[in-house]
Structures
1.
Amino acid sequence: MKYPVLYAAAAASLMLLAGSAQASGNASRGQELSSQVCASCHGVDGKMALADDYPILAGQHRDYLVVALQAYRSGDRDHAVMSSFAQNLSDQDIDDLAAWFSRQDGLGELTFD
Amino acid sequence: MLNRLLAALALTLALATSALAQSGDPERGRVIAFTCSGCHGIPFYKNVYPSYSVPRIAGQNEGYIISSLKAYRSGARKHATMQAQANTLSDQDIADIAAYFVSLAEESE
């Protein structure tokens, strides 16, 4: 090996890539889970809101959805309904749900002229 | 008869006016919400420590924007930057901002 450091760096990058691919979640499993758990309030695709103060989830950033669900699960964020639902979610469930909702058309970035 | 009619008319007007005062003004909201674009208007802008994308809010539900901003203002929901921003907002400011964000969804439809 002529460039051991380079090879090590390449290997490390690949491992990081593999790790982030794993963390991106399984959207089809997320869809299934959503239909069982989330759909009655948010709609299967996250475009519906049962009450006006419930958020639209479709198109939200994947990593923000993960942080929000983790915060409900840990108690950092408090909502009677969401806190109890999040208790039952594994890390994998959260990743899968986030992958599903983030791929739907919905929310956008603010743009200013 | 006329008196009753006038009373009913006055009541209707009073109700309409109070509804107007509570609902947000999207044009005023657009001006106040300029600050929001500093984070929420930059695609894939990241929160730091921990690192995650700041949420997309264009097209979000009016009531959710209002309840979120009020929760940040009261301290029920924690986020240093959002609490600092929300602390400067009146109920009317919050209603106006929410009305503006909703109007963005209607435009894109």
2.
Amino acid sequence: MSVFAVNYLCRQTLRDHAFREAMRTNPRAAVAGLPLSEQERDALIAGEVGELYAMGVNSFLLGYLVRFELLGLTLDSYREKLLAASRRNKTKS
Amino acid sequence: MANFVGAFGVPHTPIFAQLVDREGPESETGKLFAVMRRELVSAGPNVIIIFDTDHLNTFFLDNLPMLAVGVAATFRGPNDEPPALPRRVVPSHPALADHIRRCGILDGFDLALVQEFEVDHSIMIPLHFLTPAMDIPVIPIFLNGHVEPLPPAQRALAFGRSVRAAIDSFEGGQRVAVIGSGSFSLEVYGPRIAPGMNFGVPDPEWAKKVHAYLRDGDIAALVAETSAERLASAGNVAGELLNWIAMIGVAGNRPATWICLQERFGHAYGIWPEVAS
């Protein structure tokens, strides 16, 4: 389980401006060396923040991805994805 | 002994510096902070203690205290790039901070020690408005209000009482004001944000209820209702209410002399001046 690594990556987009820029220009290369599962890596590159949220990534930290306009996210698409994930989760439980 | 001179509850919305720059001192938020500043200045503190929830910027998920005291001559912030909020050096008061930590531990609160640190907007927004010259020493006390499980409300209140006892037993004659920083109902970047916004107020009724309890000084009811479930349903950062509850632990159970709910943000501004004994 490497949800911690995803949380850490999210905060790195705040702390490390070079990493932020790398996530903007070539996210696949930016996350290549990081200790992520295949599922996490794919979800990140695709901007599937709902999936990451469902995996347990902290929503406040996930917010940095849209705050810095990474992975093609907008506030609207970000909200829709989290809302859908949250609804799926409720249906399951 | 040091003297408690008043408690001041405020929000810390990261865009507020920019908002008041843009909309001016006569804007709603500008005026509310002006009231708070006027009352703080009138209380005349020469040390400020702030109960705060760090937003994973001073600490992180690899090393996350439930309660921690900053014991340092100075600290810096903000370290999370809120708009229009310049980075500053803030003086602190390590002797009183260390005394609070020692007293707290002897009272059964396992306080983490943090001596080399930066803080985020949740401390720097209140200071930006309340003590803009950064000329009053500030002691940060960190209380986890975001990452579940949170400390129970009763424990936050008891911790505040321990901090009050530490203020009262510190020999030095300081005039100590206490700030509680945070919201009552707020979701930031979680699924319950409002369309087109980075935040939402999932439970405005809870915010109104908290406001009423604080206004009326019904702290027993507030603490009884502030369950983990209630905080979770009020938003992913609604646990910041615990900072207010710890602040009330310092001030004592009594009504605010002034409190104003900013309903659309799910937060309030409140004042508990010291009463002459």
3.
Amino acid sequence: MTKLARELLFPLIAVVAAFIVGGVLILLVGDNPIVAYRLLLGSALSWPDGIGYTLFHATPLIFTGLAVLVGFRCGLFNIGAEGQLYIAAFATAWVGITLANRGSWLLIPLCFAAAILTGAFWGAIPGVLKAKFGSHEVINTIMLNFIAIALVSYFTQYHYKVPGDPILQTAPIGPGAYIPHLGRFVPGFPERIPLNIAFILALLCCLLVYLFLWRTKWGYEIRATGSNPFAAQYGGISIRKQIILAMSVSGALAGMVAINEVLGNRHRYYDGFSDNYGFTGIAVALLGRNHPVGVILAALLFAALQHGGIYVDGFSEHVTKDIVQVLQGVIILFVAAEGFFKWALGRRLPWNV
Amino acid sequence: MLELRNITKRFGGVLANDRVDIVVKPGTIHAIVGENGAGKSTAMRIAYGFYTADSGEIIVDGQPRDIKSPHDAIALGIGMVHQHFMLVETMTVAENIVLGAEPGTSLGLDLKSAGAQIRQLSEEFKLAVNPNEPIEHLSVGQQQRVELLKALYRHARLLILDEPTAVLTPLEVEEFFVILRRMREQGKTVIIITHKLSEVLAISDEVTVMRDGKVVGRVQTKDTNAAELARLMVGREVLLRVEKTDAEAGRPQLEVRNLSITDINGTKRVDGVSFEVRSGEIVGIAGVEGNGQTELIEALAGLIDPERISGEINFEGKNLNALGARVRRELGIAHIPEDRHRRGLLLDFTLAENSILGVHYRPPVTAMAGGVFLDENAVQRRASEIIQAFDVRPPNAALPARALSGGNQQKLIIGREYRVDPKLLLVSQPTRGVDIGAIEFIHRQLVGLRDNGCAILLVSAELEEVTSLSDRLLIFHDGRIAGEVNPKVATLEEIGLLMTRGH
């Protein structure tokens, strides 16, 4: 219990501090912070739209948060979730377009496989580069983001767009690849809200990632490598294999964003669909203390802010939805400052009794 | 000179100092001994103003004094040299010494007069330190002398030295003691905190023994001996000599032929070494640290890139050169590494998780679904077996390894490696930073393993340890075997010469 309290303490401090800093800013621009926050959170938690959209926005953040988490646990900083989810989304749409007239029983598994495998492949590239040549994954994942985004834009623009369509998006996927909205199963929850099966899948992935990391020998090896690569090597663990494995799993999780977006929402590849999901995933993993349960909570918070921000924009006089960016930024700042707090506290503790 | 009266200090729930009385006479070398956590450092940090006592008095030169900070202590002529040096590597000796007490005006730094003063102090105490040398060019022993100079420059009359010999080679320790004696002749008072009994007997005039935060003994050095001090420290009789029968060596298990190892910079660290270790014997390797022993053990354990190794490593007649650490472990080679934090433990992992490192991927630790999942019960069972058999304290498998003391971490590692029933054990510095009580236990375990037929290759910087445990002793110098001696008959001088001169 005390351990749980300790784990929750810093994230809570970060969130509360962010709201205080944001409140001061709202005062400075001449609005009432309480009114603005009520608007922000009230709209994010209203039934059914607020909750529905918050959960819908949380879905990709859970996937990318998990992706970053798996990397972190192996001592790797995967900044490439953005590129991984873009390339996976395009590949998923490609399968859905190419086999458009097949039935669900074939198309859905194939589209799932496309999302997962393409993401894993794009994640594995920097993993292999690091394992074989020691090149740093941060640089390589950033580079691969640019490559992925440019590549899918090119293919969309010149090969897969419906002729004459002014929007940069592909042709629609076949209806056999659609996955249902949750509104179809939940009474009183309208089907127009795009929250879909992918959300359930995201929760399932949290459980799977937990089991994988903490209950299997592979997870043990990944965590050992992240915790102390020298001791891992001593224990007969191949660090190179763990790096490639962790980056592949990380990329696969990021790629699953495609299931929510392509199969569950727009039913096509829409260029620039990601609202920085890959980068926000870093914040989600950090705020969630690199634990799957923490990732769910942090993703819900960020999603609520994102959705509520739209209403703040529309209904308050001076505050714009940029306030959400400020809150996110301050949260990340405080989460990153944890090391500082620990250091400041630690100085007053005995280090050799 | 210095007197601590009835000092009590609590950290949270821990009573670090419990009504401690220490009297240090002027012009003496006073040793404070005790196991890790006995409260020696705490008492001295209180005297130096690092901590404030909850109650009690500090008396300096007969006057009760309020020492609130190191600044107050320095003003009273008390200096302290910490176990970890506090030097700026890129700055010169003189710059380091004046740091915080810069001479000259507030804008101009007068290093010249400081340099002259340092040179004079250095000559007075025969420290042989050049004020203009950058710290990074100095050996550890020289750096320590810079720390001494730092205190002397601030007119310290009483020097508190926290585990000063922990970082020194045997030869440097000798030189260091000469310096301490010279300081005593010049009228300085020295307090030395240590847990090495041979050094206490060699250098001190009086000894204060601490245990569990209390003073449990005050003796004149000339009236005591190692056995008595050990008993006071541990609170029971301690066997200082290793009891063992003659080895019944069997067939050769490990055969090393013409082994050379280069480091990543291409420097040769081990140069054409050949030897063998037979089952049922302990082969010791003595040598000043950094003469290739570390690389040798890591190469045998499979932790060095085969491309940097030439020569042959054979185990039970099988060539190991190309095999990784995992395969070597499977063949029956266990390894107790010299650096338990870097190599031996996953500090953030629990004791249970640490107890399966190296066997985590195979039954009985894994179970179900093709051996993918860890069997939580089997892991817990293994952990509690090791914790029980090796008396790891506190006996809580859910704690992170970081929470244990050094000695208990070491017991966990030894227990883990012992548990796999090795045919060959590679062991480096098995008792570094470990309390006397645990040292005795670890030595008994190693001898027991040998008696069960295990071949053991032992590297230790502690000459006494390596001579008393080994059945055969190889002496390493500059990456080569400088000689082999029979540890039962060889003198320490003979071994010391081979270690330092190589012939």
4.
Amino acid sequence: MLVWKFAPMNSVVNKQFDVLVIGGGPAGMAAATCAAESGCRVGIVDDNPNLGGQIWRRETASKASEASKWAERVLAAGVEVVAGTRVFHQPEPGVLHAEGPKGLCELRYGNLVLATGAREGFLPFPGWTLPNVLGAGGLQALVKCGLPISGKRIVVAGSGPLLIAVAAYLRQHGAEIVRICEQASWTSLARFGAALLGHSNKMKQGFDLRKALSGIPFLSSSWPVSAEGEGVLQAVNIRQASKIENISCDYLACGFHMLPNTELATLLGCQIQNDCVQVDDLQQTSISGVYCAGEPTGIGGVELSLVEGQVAGFASIGRIQCANELFSVRTRLRKFAAVLNRTFSLRAELKSLAGPKTIVCRCEDVTFDRLQRHNSWRAAKLQTRCGMGPCQGRVCGPATQFLFDWRLDSVRPPLFPTRFGNLAAAASNTEPVQMIVTGEQE
Amino acid sequence: MPESITVSVNGRPVVVASAATVAVAMVLAGAACRVSASGELRGPLCGMGICFECRAVINGTQHCRSCQVLCSAGMEIRTDE
């Protein structure tokens, strides 16, 4: 008798929560804490190995930081953290399927809080696919995860307040920051500066960062036009004031502001407007019992995420009065967020960065000229495989939206590439431990 | 916990900080993570599990996003399969 064992692929972990929070960054931690401190059974599911999200990556263990304070509250409140696990499907309302280290994870919930955060925006330009051209937050994440950077020459480019924070962080870790290139103009940066005046916290952060970056050339209305190198980055060409400057460097850290992660909300059927999840005063989406907090409702930074997270957490357990008390501070922070997003909106010139042979879809290596022939995201997907690779259009989709004004209209399960064994287990919802085949062995 | 550990990238030993991710080990080894559909060498881009550029074979399991996996002593990482 021949026995084939399939055991390791298909063990199913079942969990049930009153409130389930998707995402363990600031918004998710705040939501989970506020819900759990009332005694509800609360879980946080996050793709990363640790709590903190992207902004607090590796910071929840550093003493007396705001990140560690929230992490301690999360654990003290009895929140169950399901790490290294990502949601890929909702088979029916109230149930989510996720892929974790041990296989399929079936999560049942009463109410749901989506705190799926944001990612960096990327724009294609010649050479952007070379190794050592990374996102600004991307390079920072690697350094936080142990990449030594001392003595490396780095150009930080793109758009948004993240560039400044990343440059300061990298310098603090011994890097030589050669240039910071911000595509926004001085005029809009000055408006942003004026908006900071009403926010003492943010103003202090701004001053601290400026001090940390003294002596580093900061260029406005400036952006990378191409990156060069044989198999790895060697230099970048920077445009400023109609001149092109060639700068040799070890890394180009380049991100064009942030994009809300709305894929899960879209899959669940939540209303999306202007690329953000629509929510009411209590952070509830268009679906009753499904809340959303933080960057998916609009890019606004860590302070706003914490407040929205608390509102969503309180609202999800019916503590409406506690939620109400946070509305005024939320309104103030949202006004600031509006200025932030106006300041760092992308200028039209960036649409001409990609040449005909520049790769736009990195997963399937689809070039700009092949996409130009199509008039929609769907047509481009069907005929060029653009957006059909493992990232499922998370990188090239928003880029084509900016370049060609395409509307991204096709989110479907599985939300992330998922192992066959887990898909099979999800479909059958049983546990095929072993298959027995009768017959003679050779 | 020891301050550094040794993993293997394409058969060569690489020393990394004990809490480093596999993506860091590959960058330190100077190894591109993968070869793209048209033959380009690629390294990590987003660092946060979104872009899938850093996927590699880790302890025999294919298509692992190396930026989301922590190194452990003796781990075998391959980018050339």
